[in-house]
Design brief:
By secondary structure, this protein is mainly α. Helices cover 78% and strands 0% of the residues. It has a domain of 149 residues.
Length: 216
């Protein structure tokens, strides 16, 4: 009954011309803000650290938002929300790519040997880089054509989103020096999403009880 009150279906034109562009705009606000701050020379005393932190955290937030789409759809009865899951995932990769490029260009001077040495010697870099690498196949296979081609394997592959989220949260926690409140908040939200995923999976595999008729 609750779903009936929460469910609504915006007209297709509203979704196409308002909600989708609005989502893109919201996802790009962080990029516009960073570009403006860079132009105004207002990235703080350590601009590279600011760029690294903001892009990494934005990627993590968008990943978590993308995982929220399914339970939000289930609880509200609004299946059209699924249309926003792919853009959120793609923007998460977009900011993760910027995050990596900032590290590659400004921290490692585009030297692959330094990057490989960092990955081998610093566990938090290993974890963060692993999360970024795992995002690449998900981005490549995010199209409708690839979903049809992979069929059942597509969902199994895209369940890696949970692994990526976990690695990203571990990466954030590892590089946090003082206040762990932010990392713990992301961890708590992610834990709730994992619990929901597990419960949903159990329900989907539960055998249906045969309904026996009382008629003779």
């Amino acid at each position: 009954m609750k779903k009936q009150y929460l469910a609504f279906r915006p007209p297709a034109k509203v979704i196409h011309w308002a909600l989708r562009p609005g989502l893109h705009l919201l996802c790009l606000i962080t990029l516009f803000e960073l570009l403006y701050r860079a132009y105004a020379d207002n990235l703080g005393t350590n601009p590279v650290e600011t760029l690294t932190h903001v892009t990494g955290e934005t990627s993590l937030r968008l990943l978590i938002f993308s995982l929220f789409i399914t339970p939000l759809n289930k609880f509200t009865g609004n299946p059209w929300l699924v249309l926003f899951r792919r853009p959120l995932g793609l923007y998460a990769f977009f900011y993760a790519l910027i995050h990596f490029l900032v590290y590659l260009i400004f921290d490692q001077s585009l030297t692959l040997a330094y990057v490989l040495e960092d990955i081998a010697d610093r566990p938090y870099i290993t974890v963060g880089f692993s999360a970024f690498v795992l995002m690449i196949p998900l981005t490549i296979t995010s199209t409708k054509k690839m979903r049809r081609r992979l069929a059942k394997q597509w969902q199994r592959l895209h369940n890696l989103t949970y692994v990526i989220n976990l690695l990203a949260i571990v990466h954030l926690t590892w590089i946090t020096r003082a206040d762990y409140g932010e990392a713990l908040s992301y961890g708590a939200i992610f834990l709730l999403l994992v619990i929901y995923k597990v419960i949903s999976s159990i329900k989907s595999f539960r055998p249906e009880h045969k309904v026996t008729s009382s008629r003779i």
